[in-house]
Design goal:
Blueprint lengths: L1 H5 L2 E4 L4 E4 L7 E6 L10 H19 L3 E6 L17 H9 L3 H18 L15 H13 L3 E4 L2 E4 L1 H7 L10 H8 L14 E6 L15 E3 L1 H13 L3 E7 L3 H16 L4 E7 L2 E3 L2 E2 L10 H6 L11 H9 L7 E3 L1 H23 L10 H13 L4 H19 L7 H18 L13 H17 L3 H13 L4 E4 L2 E4 L1
Parallel strand pairs: 3-4, 3-9, 9-10, 11-13
Antiparallel strand pairs: 1-2, 5-6, 6-7, 7-8, 11-12, 14-15
The chain binds adenosine monophosphate and zinc ion (ZN).
Amino acid sequence: MSTEKEGLKIYNSLAGTKEKFIPINEGFVGLYVCGPTVYNNVHLGNCRTFISFDMVYRYLHHLGFKVRYVRNITDVGHLVDDADEGEDKIAKKARLEELEPMEIVQQYTLDFHNVLEKFNTVAPNIEPTATGHIIEQIEMIKAILDNGFGYESNGSVYFDVEKYNASHPYGELSGRKIEDLLSNTRDLDGQDEKNNPLDFALWKNAAEEHIMKWPSPWGVGFPGWHLECSAMSTKYLGEQFDIHGGGMDLKFPHHECEIAQGTASNGVSPVKYWMHGNMLTLNGKKMSKSTGNSILPAELFSGNNEFMEKPFGPMVVRFFMMQAHYRSPLDFTSEALTAAEKGYDKLMEAMRSLEVVKAGEQSSVDVKAMVASFYEAMNDDFNAPILVAKLFDAVKYINSIKDGNQSIGSADLQLLQKEMNAFVAGVLGIRNDSSSSNGKLNPVMDLVLDLRQEARANKDWSTSDKIRDGLANAGIVVKDTKDGTSWS
Ligand code: AMP
Ligand code: ZN
């Protein structure tokens, strides 16, 4: 396994290129992923990012690395519009719902866990909350102030971006230049607490009516959103760690600010490999709760949404996501999901066949090369779609062994069984799930609908009604359209 482990390349957003992955401590990986702000139900776009990094985690684990995977819960300090002024997203929701902020946090944390569990994601090793790490955040702000990269103003503390930029490039991750940023923001400046509109909040002074607030050396207040991730990642993974992930929409300002905070407090750039997942789009536009262009997982599983022609199970959705590279945009459409469903069924069918096919004298295919191609795909910056294509080469082979057209030797059969299971279930996280698969039901339904069609052709209405009602009792709805009969 060691050679495969050494062959991993990761696209590092900071370098803008694929780099050989060399962990800071041999054999170990520290992985941090920005978690959700728990003020509403996660939509499928959010899920894509978490599923992408679940795949990353699973493959690192499969390669034999001991991974410490940290994904936080943001439960305070993330203000509306990601701004430095205005209402806290969670406090706002609590006000509207007439609940305690922590009731909001609990409700949506549970929803988040429940949804990710349906998508068969592995729980992180540590899931720290921002409110549980106020002390660490205060300590980090103190260090930033001591090192001269921040200032206090009216009980708030801001990061001094220009001062930092004099010795470190601010904007190195997002490719932004401080001059351009300045010319874009000066007009918007209404924030007199800040020396400079580019500065961002490390700590915010809380108004009297503010609910979520803590004492600090600068008065009663709450932490800035960017600082939370810096404090929690440093605490559990160290001043410098291997991989930081998140959606690409977080590159600026969130991750740029994390680099600045880490460097300003600890004197070292916090992350070696920055990884960013691309966005899930719906009808070509970024899936986003605020614009209404989003589907919730529950709405997709039940079919109760205006975008999809029928319900889709979580494993079909996961398989669909794995057919795109994590750095490519992916558009969610009924047609694409229907195609993914067929592919998923075919793959699951082949996995069942693989357990029952008999070994022969020798293999008609180079199985070791086939397995090596799985690793090659994933070692090339976690290229799951290429892996899926390689798995389908194996599916073709398995099917022709089953049909007696090709053969496999017994050692190769064992190898293929082991590695196919490892890659399908272990790395891609695709499991056989009856709620996602129509695989077994498809041929049965074809037969039943044929019989119904025959009865109708013979004007045998009692039989055709009996079939329809029987299916309805089993929860299967039959629809006759001009293109034929469909069921769900
Ligand atoms: P938030 O709760 O808004 O902070 O977002 C949680 C995570 O979901 C972040 O990593 C975002 O980058 C990610 N995210 C939000 N919208 C999308 C989308 N349409 N596609 C993929 N990831 C998204
Ligand atoms: Zn973060």
